[in-house]
Design a protein that fits this description.
The complex is a heterodimer.
Chain A (H helix, E strand, L loop, with lengths): L9 E5 L4 H13 L2 E6 L7 E2 L2 E4 L2 H8 L3 E4 L6 H10 L4 E4 L6 H14 L4 E3 L5 E4 L3 E4 L15 E6 L2 H13 L4 E6 L10 H10 L3 E9 L4 H12 L4 E6 L23 H10 L3 E2 L3 H15 L1
Parallel strand pairs in A: 1-2, 1-5, 2-4, 5-6, 6-7, 10-11, 10-12, 12-13, 13-14
Antiparallel strand pairs in A: 3-4, 8-9, 8-11
Chain B lengths: L4 H10 L7 E4 L2 H11 L3 E5 L12 E4 L2 H11 L3 E2 L2 E2 L3 E5 L5 E10 L4 E7 L6 H7 L4 E6 L7 H10 L4 H20 L2 E11 L5 E3 L3 E4 L11 H5 L5 H8 L3 E4 L4 E5 L2 H13 L6 E4 L6 H13 L5 E8 L4 H14 L6 E7 L2 H10 L7 E3 L3 H12 L5
Parallel strand pairs in B: 14-16, 16-17, 17-18
Antiparallel strand pairs in B: 1-6, 2-3, 2-6, 4-5, 7-8, 7-10, 8-9, 10-11, 10-12, 13-15
Helix pairs in contact in B: 2-3, 5-6, 8-10, 10-11, 11-12
Classes of the chains: A alpha/beta, B alpha+beta.
Chain lengths: ~300, ~375
């Protein structure tokens, strides 16, 4: 098992003929992901190294039966691309695009909720999702992820940051700990998928024994996660929150990573998670070590 | 990107929000010319992005030319909490019957827009919230529905704004929402929103924060970017297109990825040091980017050591290492580098660094983030032995 995507997931890449789409789309296929089609308006009928390109998502879905989409188009075009995928009935849309205006994200989110409630959006501005050994959609380097150990104790990862996600994958791999799914929810103010959405899925997934969560300053998603954990998550967790020393009022690289009006601080988030029984590390390495201890204690 | 009051008022005016007649002045003569044009009495207001201007003597009423001269002379160049006043806003003074508060922001938890409205304006809204939370009406607005005059008027009534001012307030709320959405604001706030004795409602102050991601559809924002309060380091970083924020410590930071960069500041702090900056060079980390990053760090005279923290994902360790070696050939650095290189092909990367023939007094490699942070902090704190 894994959450959201697995070995059966059929993926189309919106923007497959562009630089980012081609580079990552082909990497995803090389990893073993079923990349069945690309979409670029006006380029239908062409192919990219054997992957057929269609003019629209609807055409691509009709021809291939794809159930997931990887949106790798520039910020101006991304909102329309996400909604096009949803309108074509795609159930899982991953958007890695960085730099989409917050007003557009809020409109896209509200439109999905109203018109396409069956579509889940991951991102924008996220590294994507990998179920190691089964499916990799996005920009994660597949080789740093350890495949889940059959019958063993495996970890689910959910994170707001790309490089810290890789760091977490890498540290678990060094310790020989398998990962069921690693979800990067992204660093923007209006993410389509939240910590809570992922925690709920990991809690249900029989293959996932423990959960590693990586948050950062800004907003209240970690506090909401802590409330959810207290009430619903029985699996052991470790966590790390980046940005303890970030100055207030500055966007720290990610559009959503900002402490404003004394709210969204790392300390507040760590306190909330600790109160919910999560083991919180002072740095990413420590969070990885805490997870290794958790796995060891599960036997 | 935060706007100055005068820019916020000019932005409001484009969306039809009534503001006092006025203009921005960089000199005393300009201030006098504006006052003569809009008519006395006028208010001379320091343009700085920090609260407490009034208390610091940065807002003064002037009844004639001589008073404008006195106040503008005093305020221009004044230091308000470390912000030097370069401009004043001179506007027609308003008679105030009542002061209200209105703002639109994004409520990230609800993923909807949020209107905050109160009949208690002119004071810090956080204080109002702490003293009497019921004095603030909070209304969620669905981004694909928006707000109309009827909903806005009901909010005004709910906020206990008197009936005579409700239509005026509602009209401004609809326009302020338009400004917030079409103007791509993170925050659009009027405090105070005033009722004049004559019955008109208008914006006496403007606090606007713009979403930098929307710059591509707002060419007019270039004028705002030109006046942004950046220090020299930040200005250089912007020229080089780097994600950089200046801080006041002595350990220069370069990391790939925003999360890792934030985390690097934290680890430096954890082992007793202070970061000089936040700098995310992104996934690429090639020689060009690394050169630009080192030039910006090198420009900061407070930097005593440089901590490069790279996790190789798709970008492999050996490529990163080659980039660093090349960048070090191009930039004559004042401070030594401590590097932690991990991830894909990190071993090959470290081998390249070791074989580059750079003395350990200039470049030191450490296997973990924590060890590298300790080494960089020791150098910065003068504890090298």
């Amino acid at each position: 098992m894994a959450i959201f995507v697995n070995e059966h997931t059929k993926v189309i890449v919106q923007g497959l003929t562009g630089g980012q789409g081609k580079f990552h789309g082909l990497r995803n296929r090389a990893y073993g992901t079923k990349v069945v089609a690309g979409v670029t308006p006006g380029k239908g009928g062409q192919d990219v190294e054997g992957i057929p390109v269609f003019d629209s998502v609807a055409d691509a879905v009709k021809a291939t039966g794809a159930d997931a989409s990887f949106v790798a188009v520039p910020p101006k075009a991304a909102p329309a691309a996400i909604l096009e995928a949803a309108a074509a009935g795609v159930g899982f849309v991953v958007c890695i695009t960085e730099g989409i205006p917050a007003q557009d994200e809020a409109r896209v989110y509200a439109t999905l909720k109203r018109d396409y409630p069956r579509t889940r959006l991951l991102g924008p501005n996220c590294p994507g999702i990998i179920s190691p050994g089964r499916c990799n959609i996005g920009i994660t380097a597949g080789e740093i992820a350890h495949e889940p150990t059959p019958g063993g104790k495996n970890v689910g990862i959910v994170s707001r940051s790309g490089t810290l996600t890789y760091q977490a994958l890498f540290e678990l791999k060094q310790q020989g700990i398998g990962v069921t799914t690693c979800v990067g929810i992204g660093g923007d103010p209006v993410p389509g998928t939240s910590f809570v959405d992922c925690l709920a899925e990991f809690q249900k997934d029989p293959e996932t024994s423990a959960i590693l969560m990586i948050g950062e300053i800004g907003g209240s998603a970690e506090e909401e996660a802590a409330e959810f954990i207290k009430a619903n998550v029985t699996k052991p967790m470790s966590a790390y929150i980046a940005g303890v020393t970030a100055p207030a009022g500055k966007k720290m690289g990610h559009a959503g990573a900002i402490v404003s009006g004394g709210k969204g601080t790392a300390q507040g988030k760590m306190d909330a998670l600790r109160a919910a029984g999560v083991k919180v590390g002072a740095n990413p390495t420590e969070a990885g070590q805490l997870m290794a201890q958790i796995i060891a204690s599960l036997g | 990107m935060d706007l100055f009051e005068y820019q916020g008022k000019q932005y409001f005016a484009k969306f039809g929000i009534p503001v006092s007649a006025g203009d921005v002045a960089h000199t005393v003569d300009e201030a006098i010319a504006i006052a003569e044009r809009v008519g006395y009495p006028v208010v001379v207001k320091a343009q700085v992005q920090v609260g407490g201007r009034g208390k610091a003597g940065g807002i003064k009423l002037a009844n004639d030319k001589a008073e404008v001269q006195t106040h503008a002379t005093n305020i221009l160049g004044m230091d308000i909490k470390g912000h030097v006043v370069k401009r004043v806003w001179v506007e027609c003074a308003s008679d105030i019957a009542e002061e209200y508060y209105a703002s639109f922001t994004l409520d990230r938890a609800a993923k909807q827009h949020l209107l905050m409205l109160s009949a208690q304006g002119g004071v810090d809204i956080e204080e109002v919230a702490a003293k009497d939370p019921t004095a603030i009406v909070k209304l969620h607005v669905n981004p694909i529905v928006g707000i109309d005059a009827a909903v806005a008027k009901k909010a005004a009534a709910d906020a206990r704004i008197p009936a005579k001012a409700q239509d005026g307030v509602a009209d401004i709320l609809v326009k302020l929402y338009d400004c917030f959405v079409k103007g791509d604001c993170d925050l659009a706030e009027i405090n105070p929103l005033i009722l004049k004795p004559t019955g008109e409602v208008h914006a006496l102050d403007a606090k606007v924060s713009l979403d930098g991601n929307a710059l591509f559809r707002h060419p007019e924002w270039e004028a705002f970017r030109a006046t942004e309060e950046l220090d020299d380091r930040e200005r250089l970083a912007r020229e080089k297109d780097l994600q950089y924020i200046g801080l006041d410590g002595s350990v220069g930071i370069i990391a790939n990825g925003a999360g890792l960069a934030m985390s690097t500041l934290d680890v430096v702090n954890q082992v007793g040091g202070k970061a000089a900056n936040f700098l995310d060079i992104g996934g690429g980390a090639n020689a060009e980017l690394m050169t630009a990053a080192l030039e910006v760090i090198n420009f900061d005279t407070k930097v005593k050591s440089i901590f490069i923290n790279i996790f190789g994902g798709i970008t492999r360790g050996e490529e990163v290492a080659k980039g660093i070696v090349e960048a070090m050939r191009r930039v004559e650095l004042r401070a030594p580098i401590v590097i932690r290189l991990d991830g894909t092909n990190a071993d090959q990367g470290r081998a390249i660094l070791a074989e580059a023939g750079i003395p350990s007094s200039k470049l030191m490699s450490k296997p973990t983030m924590l060890e590298a942070a300790r080494a960089a902090v020791d150098i910065a704190n003068g504890k090298v032995g």
